[in-house]
Amino acid sequence: MTEPLYLHISGRLRQSIISGEYRPEDMLPSENELAALYNTSRVTVRKSLDVLESEGLIKPWHGKGYFVLPPKYTTFTLLFGDNMNEGRFRFQEVNIIRPSKEISEKLQLKKHQMAIVTRRLLERGGKNLAYDEKFIPYERGVPSIEFEIHFAEFPDMFEERFAPMSLHTEMTIGVETAPEHVCAALRLNAPAPLMVVTRLIRAKDDQPIGYGKQYMTEDFGKLTAKSGYYIHDKL
Amino acid sequence: MTEPLYLHISGRLRQSIISGEYRPEDMLPSENELAALYNTSRVTVRKSLDVLESEGLIKPWHGKGYFVLPPKYTTFTLLFGDNMNEGRFRFQEVNIIRPSKEISEKLQLKKHQMAIVTRRLLERGGKNLAYDEKFIPYERGVPSIEFEIHFAEFPDMFEERFAPMSLHTEMTIGVETAPEHVCAALRLNAPAPLMVVTRLIRAKDDQPIGYGKQYMTEDFGKLTAKSGYYIHDKL
DNA sequence: AAGTGGTCTAGACCACTTC
DNA sequence: AAGTGGTCTAGACCACTTT
Questions:
Q1: Which range among A85-94, A117-126, B75-84, B226-235 has the greatest average pLDDT?
Q2: Which candidate from B19, B169, B194 shows the least CB-CB separation from A228?
Q3: What are the domain boundaries of chain B?
Q4: Which residues lie closer than 8 Å to B188 by C-beta, 6 or more apart?
Q5: 3-class secondary structure, B141
Q6: Which CATH architecture fits B5-68?
Q7: B96 touching chain A per CB within 8 A
Q8: Is A191's Cβ below 8 Å from some Cβ in B?
Q9: Of all protein residues, which has its CA closest to the C1' atom of C4?
């Protein structure tokens, strides 16, 4: 139950930084001073400073000392997929198609290479909230398996074929005027601007292996993001 | 120039995890095994494992060993403000106003408390791309200073009065039908759905100290976000 | 030369898990 | 009891910065 010393020290220092006692550009006491102050070894002090460094609060400068960093307000953590799983998906289509120019470029398909598409509609409370398209390259010799994946979410569906840790995703969020088939599925009277989230899944070698677009109506809700050191689960 | 041993070890292990040699749920060799393998001390091995833990790749389990974690696909890092600074802002209004219900709730204003508003228009290449509103509580006795801050960006403007590290921001991204004054400023013919980013700045005690809304047109561009271990600057 | 952080060692004792 | 990770010590030597 008793708190380890190194967490006690990092906690005290974090508090001092957040409260403004140490401000950005300020220097913390040296490792030796802290070791003397808390009557402990330099190793333990270093461990507590490592904690704060990994949280992005401080940066050591060889030969000088530990500096307090200015906060980065432009970096947000976005949690995506939370409200995606509330509601019910209805499949509209699972097919092999000749890809559009956009899809072909995003997936870097070869000429005449086909793509597999799944299209789904998200319903919640009797309302059509979102429309969802996923595209993956079609390759001969990897047959029916592809048709089973359409129940899985991005990028879970790739875990069988790729090392999971090697996948990464690029996301864009914007407004687009939805194409007709999307408007029809969502039962919109006229082409309307919708929030569109695209996701491009890449494997370790940056090879694109999946591309998805989600069209979200006003009823769908909002995406949320957070920034700030203060929200760390520690403290 | 020679790479420290602990980084060498963590690099090798990271490579093994990303390549799929160790998969999620797998256990890494024990600290003692690694120490023997690399002919080094347990302390150095621990330091290399700490690196991977702070990257979210592994999790130690007391008495058992180090487990490889499954990737979290729902956590994205969003860089906001990059395309906000390209272009030119034109101030439309700086004023003390009676707040709307929305503003009053977000800022948790007292009854009859006023708010300061700044409204701006973002132009780029002759096009109106975005409209920007910021609200902060008005307090008597903190007078004209407030009017000077309107050149600063959220949340920089608060750094004088609050400990910078104590601020945090909650963001929502969604589609809203823009109110009339926004449509007028953006020269839209009819009320149109726009991408709306709201930001609520809170101080350390969770007290709201600023609220901003940005309405973005289709021309503005998209927000981008990334996920995946693979994009870490290391490796 | 003196102070700072960066790396590393060879131990120690504890708490948790497995057998 | 044996193996695992968790914490901590008291040194050592190096590289960088300041005086």
A1: A117-126
A2: B169
A3: 5-68, 78-224
A4: B178, B217
A5: coil
A6: Orthogonal Bundle (1.10)
A7: no
A8: no
A9: A63
Per CB-CB distance under 8 Å, the chain A contacts of B23 are: 163-164
**Closest nucleotide C1' to the C-alpha of A41:** D9
Q: Is the pLDDT of residue A151 over 80?
A: no
H or E stretch covering B118: strand B115-124
Scanning B38-127, the segments in alpha helix (DSSP H) are: 42-54, 101-106
Query: What is the model's pLDDT at position A133?
Result: 94
- Average pLDDT for B85-98: 86
Taking only the tens place, the pLDDT of each residue in A38-82 is 999 999 999 999 999 988 899 999 999 999 999 888 888 898 876
Judge: A164–B20 Cβ closer than 8 Å, yes or no.
Answer: yes
Number of CB pairs, chain A paired with chain B, less than 8 A apart? 194
Residue whose tokens read 């390209």: B86
CA of A47 to C1' of D18 (A): 26
pLDDT (average), residues A138-150: 60
* First-residue to last-residue Cα distance in chain B: 16
> How confident is the model at residue A231, as a pLDDT?
40
d(CA A94, CA A210): 15
Q: How far is the CA of A176 from the C1' of D7 (A)?
A: 55
CB B46 within 8 A of CB B65: no
| CATH class, range B78-224 | alpha beta
CA of A207 to C1' of D2 (A): 47
| Sign of the CA dihedral running A119, A122, A123, A128 | negative
Is there a contact between B18 and A163 if contact means CB atoms under 8 Å apart?
A: yes
Is B200's Cβ below 8 Å from some Cβ in A? no
The answer to pTM > 0.85 is: yes
* Long-range pairs, A49-54, Cβ under 8 A, ≥24: A49/A10, A49/A13, A50/B50, A51/A6, A51/A7, A51/A10, A52/A10, A52/A13, A52/A14, A52/A17, A54/B54
